[in-house]
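When time allows, look over one protein, given below as sequence and C-alpha cells. The question is which stretches look regular and which look disordered:
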Amino acid sequence: MEAPLSPAKTMKTSSIIRIVITAMFVTIVTLGNLRSADTDVDDSHWFVIPENASFEQLRDYMRNHLQAERNKREKENTEKHRANQLTKEESARMTKFREQYEKTYEEVCNRIESLPTQTKESKEFVLRQKWSQARRGGFLEQRIPELKKLLDFCDGDPDLADMRKTVYSDWFRYSMETASLSKLDQLFEQHLADLQEDPARAVYLSDTYFKQLAKLKPEDFREKMTDSLGKIKAIVEKSGNEKAIGFIPRIEGSVNFWPLDGQEMELKGVFMDGTEFDLASLKGKVVYVDFWATWCGPCIGEMPGLHTKYLALKDAGFEVISYSIDEKLADLVAFLDKTKYTWNTISMLKSKEKGFRNYFEFYGAAAVPKTVLIGRDGKVIKTDVRGFQLEQELNKLFGNEMDTKMLDPNAPAEFKLNFFLERFGRLGMTKEFSHEMYEAAIAFIESNTDDQKRDMASLCQMLIHNLEFNVRLQRKLAPEHQPLTVMKRLLPALENAKNTWLQEYVQTLEAKIRGHELPGKMMELEGILADGKKFDIKDFHGKPVVVFFYRAFQRPPLPPGMERDSKTPLQFTLEKLKSYHADYAEKGLGIVVYFSGKEHEDFPEPDETMKDWKITFAEDSIAGGMKNYWDYYGLSSSPTLFFINRKGNVVDTPDWGGHNELLNTLTTEP
C-alpha cells in the first residue's frame, strides 16, 4: 500500500507541492505529538465564555482565567520536556488545549467587537489579536498587505494611535525586507521622515534597511551605506532624543556587519581559560563564529547539532568560535560545565577586562544568535547562517566528510543521534539517502533501544516517514529499505526496548504495518453516515471502489479579509474524485470518504455528484463505538487513496497519473 502522493506528468507542479507540503505538515505534527489516543481528561470547562458579559469581564476571562492557565501549562510542559518526562498523552492534551485556546480567543474578540459601546481599551484588545494573526499569516509578502489593512483600520481613530505605531513598525520592516532597490530608496526617504517625527521608535528600523541594502548590493552600496548613516545620525542627534542617540552605536555597528560577505572579519578576545585569541590565526581553516548567550533559547537549541558538525569536521579543518555575551560569568561557567561542548568559547566580559573591544556591539548585533561562516581564505562566506543552511554550506566545503565520519561504527552514539535527527528531520524528510546512510540509521536504532531519550522515538518515526515519502515520489529504494521491510525489521527491537517512547511507538508501527500489508487483502472499514445509518465497506462487494482518507489539521488563522489563494488538498482531491465519478460511475464505481478532523476544516456540503458517495466522519463513528481507521492503518499522509477491485481486495495504488488506467481496469474486469 502506498498513498498516491507522487508527482505525475499529468499533474501540475503546484498541486504536487501543496499536497506534499500538507503531508509533511501532518507528519511534523505527528512527530511532535507521537500520535496518541485521546486522553480522558476533559478541558472543556476552561473554554466556557461568560454570557452577556461586558468588555472588562471578557478581557479578564481571557487574561486571568484562560491565558493564565495556558501559561502555567506551557511552563510545566516545557520543564517536563527538558527533563525527558513529558508523556505522549500530556503532549497531545497540550496541543488540543492550544487549538481550543486560539478559537476561544477569536470568539472573545468577535463578542467584544459586537458590543454596543466601544472604548479605547476594547478597540486595542481586538486590534492586538488581529495584529498577532497578521504577523503569523504566512510569507512576508502575504503579511505586508494585511498589516497595511490594519493601518488603514487605525487611521482616523485617535484611540488607536499608539497601537498604529506598533503595526506600522512591523509593516515597514517587512516591506524593507522584501523591497527591490528602487523601492528601498523610497522606503528610506520615508524612514528619514519617520525619524524626524518619532526618532526613538523609528531608529531601530535602520538596521533592517542596511541589511537589505547589503543583500541587494548596488555597485555603490558602501558609499550608499556611509551616506545613509550620516543622514540618520544627523537627524537623530538634532532631535536630542537620548534613547534614539543611544541606539546610534548599534546602527554604526550594523554598517560593519552586513557588508561582511566576501570580506575578512576582525575578531579578537579572551577564551575561558584566559588565552588570548585572534581570528586571523585560523586562516586556512573554515571557521564558524557564533554570538550567543546562555539565556537565548534558539542559541541553545542549535548547539547539539552544531557540536555534531564540529566533532565530525574538526580534523578536516573546521573550527567553531563561540562568543558569549553573557554579563554574568557564573551563568556561563555553569552552562559550559554542564554541556561539555568542546569548542573554544570567548567571554565578552573577560575580553573587555583585557581591553578588547566588544565585538557584539562592534557588529551592531541587536539580538542573538548572530552567526558568521568564514572560508579558508579568511573571507566571510555568509552571515546569519544556521541549521540546515549551515549544513548545506559545509557540504560544499567538505564534501561527504561529515557523513563518512558519523557513519563510522566507532562514532559516539550521542553524536550519532543528533546527526541522524538532522539528516532525517526538517528538509531531509523527503530526501533520498545512500544505502549506507539508511543501514547506519536502522542499525543505530536497533542497537540503542535502551537509550531513554525521546528523540530515539522521533528518529524512528522520521526514518519511516522518509522511506514512505521516497516511495510516493517514485524513487527506487533497495528492497531491504522498502518501508514495510524496515518496519518489520525494527519491530522486534522496539518490542524489547527499555525506552518508554519506543515502547509506545510499537502500537503505531504495528498499525502502519497493517496498512502497508493491505494490497491483496480485504479492507476493514465501517462508519456512521450523515443520516445516522451505519456503513460497511463490505456493502460494496462486487463493485470497484475508491476509498479516500483525509485528516484535516489546524491551519494558522488568516488575517481579516484574507483568502487563501490556492486550493486545499481536500478541494483538489474532491475535484479528482468527481472526475472519476463522472467517467466511471455508470460502470459501477463506488466512492467512500473517511474524513477526520472536522473541527479544523469544514467538509463541503455534498452536491448532486456526491449524493451516492458514502461519506463518514471519523469523530461520529468513533463516538458510535467504531475504530479510528486512520490510526488503525497507521496513516500519516493526507490525502491517502486506496483502490479496491470487485473481489473486495485492495490493489497497489499508482501515482496520480496512473489512476485512470487503473480505474479503467477495475471497472471492466469481471
User: Anything to note?
Assistant: Residues 388 and 632 are 34 Å apart (CA to CA). DSSP finds 26 helices and 14 strands in the chain.
